[in-house]
């Protein structure tokens, strides 16, 4: 897309491709949500969106992602990448920031369909966006978080070098939920998998950056 090069941005790892979603991607992503993301007895999300009735969930998910893309601004951006494995959309990995050109700080979030969990794909897809942030965009820090009863997500963070950064207390589904906040410094990150970034240079203004701003990142491809 000539006037919105973000749709040409691709991150690739040995098993995955991450890209901004097309309408067909969102349709397939809704299938993964219907198939299940987590045990119904637990809620890993601050907003319990997976509780929506089955006949409402697909439309709600698609509208949400379209809204995310429509609100993109250079000083307030949100990459809602779909994760593709063996030609199939299997989940979401996001990367977001506000006033990034000043703060050089990003945050991440993600989910995978249950059938694809426990295979190391969560680590691989987060490593991909961290590589984009640190090597491509010149980020200095990255934040994440997970409820203390979500050992899988916390394990991904631990493997990638995050350190504890305090806790927050929330109300989720009428219950107390404790979030472990996490922080990763650029110098502490080494990707466990090779990551290639394609099509980044024309996207830099959409991240609030010039080529000079990102010059301390990796070579652009």
UniProtKB/TrEMBL annotation:
Family annotation (SUPFAM superfamilies): Acyl-CoA N-acyltransferases (Nat)
UniProt-listed InterPro entries: Acyl_CoA_acyltransferase (IPR016181), GNAT_dom (IPR000182), Ribosomal_N-acetyltransferase (IPR051908)
GO CC terms: cytoplasm
Gene3D superfamilies in alphabetical order: 3.40.630.30
UniProt keyword Methyltransferase present: no
Keywords: Transferase
Pfam families tied to this protein: Acetyltransf_3 (PF13302)
Residue stretches making up the N-acetyltransferase domain: 16-185
Domain of life: Bacteria
MF terms in GO: protein N-terminal-serine acetyltransferase activity; protein-N-terminal-alanine acetyltransferase activity
PANTHER family tied to this protein: RIBOSOMAL-PROTEIN-SERINE ACETYLTRANSFERASE
Name the record gives this protein: RimJ/RimL family protein N-acetyltransferase
Species this protein is from: Nonomuraea fuscirosea
